[in-house]
Amino acid sequence: MASKALPLVAACLVAACRSSAPPSTPAPSSPSPASAAPLAPVARADPTDDDLLYLEDVHGERALSFARAHNAITEAELTAKPGFRALEARLLSIYGSKDKIPMPTVHGNTVRNFWTDEQHPRGLWRQTTLLEYKKASPAWTTLLDVDALNAAEGESFVFHGAICLYPRYEKCLIRLSRGGGDTEIVREFDVAKKDFVKGGFSLAEAKSNVSWKDEDTLFVAMDFGPESLTESGYPRVVKEWKRGAPLSDAKTIFEAEKSDVRAWCGRTFGRGRHHDVCSRTMDFEHQEVSILQRSKLVRLGTPNEAEVSLWNDDVFVRLKSDWKIGETTYESGSLLLSELAPLLAGKYDFQILYKPAPQTSLKAFEPTKNKILLNVMSDVTSKITLFSRRGTEWVGTALKEKAGSIEAYAFDDDNSDDAWVLTEDFTTPSTLSLWNTQTGERTTVKKNPSFFDASNLEVAQHFATSKDGTKIPYFEVRKKGRTSPGPTLLSAYGGFERSMTPSYSGLRGAAWLEKGGTFVLANLRGGGEYGPSWHKAAMKDKRQNAYDDLAAVAEDLIRRGVTTARSLGVMGGSNGGLLTSVMLTQRPELFGAIVSLVPLTDMKRYHKLLAGASWMSEYGDPDNPADWEALKKFSPLHNIRRAASYPPVLYTTSTKDDRVHPAHARKMVARLEALGHTPLYYENIEGGHGGAADLKQRAYVDALIYTFLASHLGL
Q1: What is the pLDDT at residue 271?
Q2: Does 491 qualify as catalytic in the annotation?
Q3: Could you tell me if 301 and 343 are in contact, meaning their C-beta atoms sit under 8 angstroms apart?
């Protein structure tokens, strides 16, 4: 990373797998329908929590037998539905399209891209020149063929990215995951030689953090043995590792507490200068940031409840709570900028780049070489502002653009103030343009093709009223002029300050909208659509607000005649999978079908499973009686009722998901069945938290999901 702002919060959020994962698809090792005898739904005694503990043994034979048997039932039922194979093939052609935008990373005259298609399901890491990239069909040079690597080594690697050394970006650390989980191996790669460096830096499989200090030195955080991991299973010790020395000789330079989420150290580069930065991430809301100066850690005096980023000799501070300094109070949600030197000296002189206004929030910010791009949302619609320094002040100029979603990225933050602008909407494919921020001129460089017929669709935003009177925005995509209720799919997330914004999806279009279905995206409390306060309104003991918000949107859709309860489906992944599972147990009468993807369901033991302890700032601590009092009221696993009438439900997960434990979905299905209900369940053997490891797996799993929805909602 060069002069780009270096975020210091360790990113291990429960991501919304279905809305953000790249199109990626049946695993070769997935069990076939013939691999197990079908299970007959028979009501049994309600299993205790202890009775279900065997499902926490990820690769235990009894747990895997459970998965295989259920996969057999689900695959036999859904793959036999009319249109399944055609949909699977259609989705694979979309995900593997050779006409989609190859998203660029630019270093000088070099453009790099990671690419997947039907011939390269695990992908190619490749590069070309900037002039070539601007052509309709660029000539690419392959740096690493992941499919060929897997064939040569008998592996199942998924490419997780490359960390390349400033300023030449030719020495890179390649991150590879077996099957797509969060654990990775790291190998040093020489771009000039297009090969791994023999005897170079190499890390064994772990949940690690690694970054360059210089050509012969790395900062490494990983499992170094006893007491080196936090209770969340992430590294708490950072070491400085010299080339040629054994990792066991690496020197410890920073430690977090065992109760923290993780520790991290890295070097920022830019304009010929650098800073070594270390941070403790205590939880998703709090971090402590220090600068390493001559082997001494100097703590920044910023609030713990803030996101801190370095850019050259400046510091960005995005506040998550009010910060009072003397007579001045900086509001929660603001973005502040200060020079580093005075901040280290205890002098607080900030310029406010963004201050919250009603119905707005800061979605993102990113510096170019000398300027700053801000993305501010107003009622979930983005506007880009470019800030330039005039004397000692920063002055903003708005970009004139109307689109459902706008993103702006630095073009080449080492050398340029130009920016990439990516626009899209529910019915409009992505367009990538290059913005000359000096002249204001924008040039279209690439466009995604249309993957479905959107000519007869319209998009509108509505607001539902939640139980406590709060207005909840939601987007609705449906056929123009439609007046009668019809099959409708509702999607939401509502957690971790993650904003759900309009996006173009070939999957959604081909599998749902083009066939006449209506799609709804709800912006619930718990997300970031209106800043930190919107997020905090659904944290811990206020968590029920998010569930009331989703129910309110469902009720509004039924009241407005968009759909009926029988033809309304809801789908969500990860924290969104928790959301939909709560809908199953709290408001089953509102839905005709429910899909819960890689979900949390056991809120009594979630903090003991994989990365679960890192989410206690969001949900609460089940071992705290007061927190459990709130958690038990919505914990899906503990609110299943034998006499309840539940709509059809499909659970999916991945054996390789080492973030949200597959036991959450397994247990939920086991208890539902024990109480006489008949859920469907599919567990992909690979895929990690995204649910699939490559294009073919993704097409297969998505075809299962949308076939299930269509068959139960009358599409």
Answers
A1: 75
A2: no
A3: yes
